[in-house]
Amino acid sequence: MSLIKIGYDKLPYQAEFHEATDPNVLLSTGYGGGKTYALVMKMFRLMNVNRGIPGGMLCPNLKMFRRDVLPTIKQICSEYSIPFHYRRQDQELIFKTTNSTILVFHSEDDGTSIKGPNLGFGLINEVTLCSRGAFDAFLSRMRIKNTPLPQIAMSGTPEGFNWVYDDFIAKQRSDTKIIFGDMRSNKFVLEGYADRLWETFDEKSREMYVKGKFVNLQGMAALHAFNRGAHCKPTKRDPNLPVWVAIDFNVNPMAASFWQPVPVNKGQKKLVGFGELCLRNADTAQLAQAIQESLGGTNNVVLYPDPAGKARSTKSHHTDIMILEDHGFTDIRFKSRIASVRDCINASNSLIDKGLVEVDPVTMPETIRDFEQVAWKDGVFELNKTDGKRTHWLDGFKNMIDFEFPVGEARGSWRESER
Predict the structure, then answer these.
(1) Which residue of 16, 109, 195, 280 is surrounded by the most CB atoms within 10 Å?
(2) d(CA 155, CA 170)
(3) Is 331 helix (H, G, I), strand (E, B) or coil?
(4) 383 and 394 in contact (C-beta within 8 Å)?
(5) Model's pTM, two decimal places?
(6) Contact 39/27 with Cβ under 8 angstroms?
(7) HSE-up of 344 (CA within 13 Å, CB side)?
(8) 3-state secondary structure of 191
(9) Are 207 and 199 in contact (CB under 8 A)?
(10) Strand partners, 331
């Protein structure tokens, strides 16, 4: 067996991560901080030190592994002529140079599938998106005696004060090294990416998604950028502009809010809200009729319904989308699914923080209550829905924002490489 030899131009926090020998090491960076690249390089180092000993890699799901981690491995192996084989059926990475096998696991079943193999070392991609159960199951496999460097190396971006914070940050464990990386120091990303990312987020979100720091979300309003004094103003409908209708389907209540995209400086649009609907014990047809009556028809009206509306209806064999179409609405916009509530809320906070959202305090009381009262559940990125009266108007609003002003999709288009 020989060594895998790679040239690695490390950023300071990547170097610290790479050389750490603590039983656990965690690299926390913002988006584009190079955490995936650093994790793969750490994998090669652990294979060199632990030649012939199998290791494991845990990811939130296999899709993320194939989208982010596997291409990085292929890129590095191609650049340095390192032979390897990915056995997809068995989820194994085989490196003949060091006689190493890396078994790939996922967190989707909370660790129930992580059984069988004995491992000497482990790597965890996006650890803050993995479950505590999956981590515990993964840790239990690290049992090969006399492994030269029996380490678990983890990388990720903060996701509030979740189990990772509780177990590794707050406890200040002697067996764990914590490394924070501000992505603005990453010289390998596309020029201007860091500046654009900084502008994308509000101040609190920058701590997580740029600086890689953990932020306490416990009980914090989801739309923390919203301020009644700054963002509530009397408004009225402009007959020359289209109306955007944010919809959340519920039997009790059916919720909708009315917005107009008003052009402002530099091609930006300010969303001006001028009304809302709250229908108790209603169905989709009644909601469609109420929208028509409130707006005087369907002309120049854009609907943003709950994505689930394409699959079911509240009270008929037709889907909610079909019922809206039957009532004459032709411009209906929605994604097939909401990939990330976190990204929807981030995009909403970004617009509000920039002063690009106005809400009428008289005609939109339920919308304002949602904006002020809906909080994160247990300090993580899940909306607290224990109050049945709340979240409906925020749900409709965030889905509309995610369609028209997405944060998550824009990030990828700015990145050249994530080293």
Answers:
(1) 16
(2) 17
(3) strand
(4) yes
(5) 0.60
(6) yes
(7) 22
(8) coil
(9) no
(10) 302
pLDDT at 42 over 80: yes
Measuring CA to CA, which residue among 96, 105, 165, 94 is closest to residue 137? 105
**Cis status, amide bond into 263, omega within 30 of 0:** no
Q: What is the tens place of the pLDDT at every residue in 151-170?
A: 999 999 887 667 888 888 76
Contact (Cβ atoms closer than 8 angstroms) between residue 57 and residue 86:
no
Report how far residue 356's alpha carbon sits from residue 354's, in angstroms, rounded to the nearest whole number.
5
For residues 84 and 81, what is the distance between their CA atoms, to the nearest angstrom? Answer: 9
C-alpha to C-alpha distance for 281 and 305, rounded to whole angstroms:
18
Encoded tokens for 334: 């929605």
Q: 353 to each of 228, 298, 312, how far by Cα in Å?
A: 12, 31, 35
Q: Could you tell me the two tokens for 36?
A: 């995936």
With both helix axes pointing from N to C terminus, report the angle between 35-49 and 70-79 in degrees, rounded to the nearest 10.
60
pLDDT surpassing 70 at residue 103: yes
The answer to whether residues 151 and 121 touch, using CB atoms and an 8 Å cutoff, is: yes
Q: What percent of the chain has pLDDT over 90?
A: 55
β-pairing verdict for 243-248 and 254-263: antiparallel
